[in-house]
Protein 1
Amino acid sequence: MFRGLEHTAIASPDPARLAEWYVQKLDFRINYTYDGNYFVRASDGSMLEIIPSQGERAPQQMKDPGIRHLAVSVDNFDAALGELRNRGVQFLTEPFANQGNRLVFFSDGDGNILHLIQRERPLP
């Protein structure tokens, strides 16, 4: 019955600009637009919907209540990290290991928190 998450929405003051950030920095593609909303799709089929925001943005801390980050899986951590550096991504942490996994946190064009992850073993 329930198949999974079809997409996650992010509210942005400039959805077109943020959608293009995901295209330029993470190789997503814009796969659908309507009324100022942009869907961007990753190569694995996962999607984000970027919608127009209203009001001022609240400060973003790593462990504030609510959704805190989007995790981007990679096959080759070092190559992906180097590519993000070449593409001018703003990093929030240095790369680190946690339980055999390699991670680094960074922010998108609006300051939303993401991280790269290369897992030693897939989760069950």
Note: Residues 7-54 form a domain with the Signal recognition particle alu RNA binding heterodimer, srp9/1 fold (CATH 3.30.720.120).
Protein 2
Amino acid sequence: MNSSEFINLLRENGVVGGGGGSFPTYKKFSFNNLDTLIINGVECEPLLYSDYFLVKERFEEIIFTLQRLQEIFNFRDIFFTLKKKRLELADFLRKKDIENIKNLKFYLFEDIYPAGDEQIIIKAIKGITLPSFKLPGDYGIVVLNLQTLVFISEAIRGKPAIRRFVTVSGLVKNPLVFDVPIGTKIKDLIDISGGYLVDNPVIFAGGVMMGGIIGESFSIKKGTTGIIVIAGDSKLMVEKKTSADIFSKKARSVCDGCMECTLFCSRNLIGKKIRPHLIMRYSEDYLSGRRSIPSEVFNCSECGLCYVYSCPLGLSPRKVIKSLKEKSKRDVVEDFDESENFLFKIPPSYKIKKRLEIEDVKPNFHGVYNPSIISVDIKQSKGFSPKPIVKDGEFVLTGEKICKMSQNKLGVPLHSPVTGKIVYIDGQKIKIEASD
């Protein structure tokens, strides 16, 4: 198999990033002169263990995929990144002969947040700060999440991306990691996990730091790494309930310009020009239109350190900057010199969990779960939405294409995660009743 055939295989089998970004993976391999492959197994968000169990349960597929990628692209370097606290996974993979893969080596991070940020990983390993509008591929780099590796393994075997590992944790009675089809309702998984431990639960898809609030009707997507339950009166909910305007007005009254938000900004530390303390100082002018919004707001990754960790006064530069992004047009940002020892300045994860008052309990592995009814989101990735090619009442097979994507558009087709009858379809979802 050559690179062109491989890229087409990924596209036709609907492979996207499984770490939350959901970027169509075929585009990552469409650059010339790719020489570095980085496997992101850091899983830096608190409470997430999907990647941990992927290594334990799918190691054969992970190793197989890495071997095939090396055969196709002949990477000069392959870095398998993990946290030092999960060194057991590196030892486990070594026993499975992963180091027989040409040019592979492990890169271990301290338990810091947000070490799983793609740009932080690239800076730590390659010493490169990605400029505005540049992608890792422009520098010969491909970064893949572990779930993405499993998607690729299935694509090589002729199977589309239709199942994934997902963590259900936080304030549930029995935290678990599941292997589920895309479209599984999260309410089913929460019930199997014993239900809620609080009367006022709030559910996040992804991690608590960068994930979004969802309802019980939410269904698992290809990029859904976790379902995390927190209490409705938690520190994070204060931020969610407070508008950018309120934070801006509060900043005018109480911000003392301590610069902690800038000093500990993860993107600032790798050399991206982003100065949250100055943005907060003039935020009312930016929000009202009296001043032009600086393009540096687009360097913010919205990791949440400024609110959860840095600001002693409870201000959220992240919330304000997100609002400014929505009001502005992206432009090139000139970067500046970064801290040489930036990794030592990124906060340890235990401090994040302490501020959030959450306990990081290692879940058990539930294994395969197959619901009787699934509700599949038509849009599963960045780019354009595919077009449905099935109708109500039709019978579909597992892996059958149910939505197509034009060849000249960024995006991937969608396949049925189960065998069964389509009972509902609209512009957003396809509901399928699985056959016995």
Note: The chain has 17 helices and 17 strands.
Protein 3
Amino acid sequence: MPTHDLVVIGTGPGGYVCAIRAAQLGLNVAVVEKNATYGGTCLNIGCIPSKALLHASELFDEAGHGFKAFGIEVPAPVLNLAQMMKHKQETVDANVQGVAFLFKKNKITAYRGKGKVLGAGKVEVTADDGSKQTVDTKSIVIATGSDVAQLPGVTIDEKIVVSSTGALELAGVPKKLVVIGAGVIGLELGSVWRRLGAEVTVVEFLDRILPGMDGEVAKQAQRLFSRQGMAFKLATKVTGVTTSATGAVVSVEPVAGGEKETIAADIVLVSTGRRPYTDGLGLEEAGVATERGRVVIDDHFATNIPGIYAIGDVVRGPMLAHKGEDEGIAIAEILAGQHGHVNYDTIPAVVYTYPEIASVGKTEEELKAAGIAYKVGKFPFTANGRARANRTTEGFVKFLADATTDRVLGAHILGAGAGEMIHEAVVLMEFGGSSEDLGRTCHAHPTMSEAVREAALAVEGRAIHI
């Protein structure tokens, strides 16, 4: 008989949640982790540490520029970057230690080392000292996450030219920071260092920021970021980066052709996306099918090899921690004989800039491309009482509903706390709700969330405060 019912390779959000849920359901579970700590990219060098720095930098910026309007007179704040980094590390440590505790609580066996799939039912674990052991199991879940995508011709040294990992560990605030890529990671980390004093220039190949998000929201967000001091060079490609002991020079030119130019920088952040991490997993030898680097799965997370499954960033869909978590829960329940399922139409996405940007469901561009008739309801935070009191009036809420049935097809929020407010739209859509359902639901006054209700009411022209 196999030693375990399930072996999960990787302990990022998808992997550790999968392991815990499977253990809750009575399975004998083991995990394989190559790093010194659990939690994968998200907890160690991604979501969690970046949010610690985002919050801290927002407070620093607010103390320096926002307190006076509230009648709070304080001296100009002094940055203690070492203490800010200490806060970040303490946040990371607490989270990864929490995962270790949960593994122990749920009696999950941990194998330290790099996992390799030998075939159905067998995982080889290579420890740091080179020793190997083979673990037998009924089922294998591949949850190895993703890694930084390299930009051709640009070498990341994590000193002058950094990835998101290096951008979280800078020893000082750069005078000039060039961010290559105007996606989520680039905007979040660029905003951290701008608030702390860097001059930030964002270079993006496309003619817009935040590809894939609602165009109107992205356009307004860019206006706000520009007003804050970030410079944007859109429809621009990077043709090279040269480095020296003191900094870098980024060569760029218009995508459509035109005059070339160079941008001097102390630090260059490469944030052009991520790639599935399957290095050394032995997938090809084991016969596991992949396509464009991603593991191919069916609707039940199964690969083409019986008993081998995959979730998270290594499979299709958005590379989001919570998407991986939901998939981890679903496959654990399936393996336990239940009916795990993920509704990919209701997975929210959040950009943790200031103001935040949150989205769920379809964008206007997607609905137009699909030929779906829809109605739009919008409400600005300038008309929200709590936003005025908080001086957080930037942005708006936007609902997209089917023109015939009124079923909500998408919701998009640009504003302070958008990442929290989006979830009532997520729940509404999960239950197939209409804009009227939300519009007729009482909201406490005064709250920022009232703007969500007003936007829902606006779908049928019923908003009260505009």
Note: The domain at 348-458 is CATH 3.30.390.30 (Enolase-like; domain 1).
